[in-house]
Design goal:
The structure is a single chain. It contains ten helices and six strands, in the order αααββααβαβααββαα. By secondary structure, it is of the alpha/beta class. The protein has a six-stranded mixed β-sheet with strand order 1-3-2-4-6-5, with helices on both faces. β5 and β6 form a beta hairpin. The structure holds uracil. Uracil binds next to α5.
Length: 255
């Protein structure tokens, strides 16, 4: 059976033929859901102006090695070449800096590179990455149009969650990437990404589907694709979250 997000793409493609220019395809998507899943309540109304969230400071220690300030991604990436700021450098094969359109309107932030990513130096290219590609396509973006990065740039052994001090050391580089790219929207994939970027202790089930913000950039936390691979039923919630992002872009285009 085709994956959930493949099916969404099919419905959207059909819908696009019927209603050219209509991004969200609400009635057909609802029909799709009711055909394959139990009925759901109406999606929450989209807030076009996400409220700022001033998060609690949980990762308190200041980074020991503040990165130099760079104005372009290449210089920032080059500055990391031999990074030894944290113990993750010991076992890495490649630093996974991030990739995509330097002028991306939409940025995805994951947790940390996995095995495949460490071997190739590229983010989200394993099984979770394939699902992320489908999610991006279902949002009517291409992988080349968006930017994809992680909270930490080196793989934690056995794919463990990065430790707080590893995050503290690495996140200033992600902050610089965000400053350089200035995306219109950030999607945080999973708890580690959402907690670290938003500096909140709240879990992903509480955070997902609600607009947050990082330095006035709207942030939508949603489930990590690796979780969605294990928990198929959560794809419906993830799709709801991604639709909020699509609606946000759509509302901006209408203005
Ligand atoms: N999971 C992540 O969080 N990031 C990757 O790059 C790959 C898998």
């Amino acid at each position: 059976m085709a994956d959930f997000f493949d099916q969404i793409c099919e419905v959207l493609a059909e819908n696009g033929k019927k209603y050219p220019g209509n991004l969200t395809a609400n009635s057909d998507i609802r029909e799709f859901f009711s055909a394959v899943k139990t009925p759901q309540p109406e999606p929450a109304p989209v807030k076009n102006d996400p409220p700022p969230v001033m998060p609690r400071n949980v990762n308190t220690p200041k980074p020991l090695n503040q990165p130099q300030h760079f104005n372009d991604l290449k210089s920032l990436c080059d500055s990391l070449a031999d990074c030894q700021n944290c113990p993750l450098c010991r076992n890495r094969n490649h630093i996974v800096f991030g990739e995509g359109n330097p002028n991306a309107r939409l940025m995805f932030i994951g947790e940390a590179p996995g095995y495949e990513e460490d071997m190739q130096g590229r983010p989200f290219i394993g099984a979770a990455g394939q699902l992320l590609d489908k999610m991006i396509k279902a949002m009517r973006f291409t992988r080349e149009e968006v930017y994809i990065a992680n909270i930490v740039k080196c793989r934690p052994q056995n794919n463990r969650t990065p430790a707080p001090d590893e995050i503290t050391q690495c996140i200033p580089f992600l902050h610089q990437q965000i400053h350089i790219i200035r995306p219109e929207v950030i999607v945080c994939l999973g708890a580690t990404a959402a907690k670290a970027l938003l500096n909140t202790p709240n879990g992903i089930s509480r955070l997902r589907g609600k607009w947050c913000n990082f330095e006035n950039i709207p942030v939508m936390p949603t489930f990590h694709p690796a979780f969605l691979l294990r928990q198929e039923s959560a794809k419906r919630d993830a799709w709801h979250d991604l639709q909020l992002v699509m609606s946000y872009f759509f509302s901006r285009e209408k203005k």
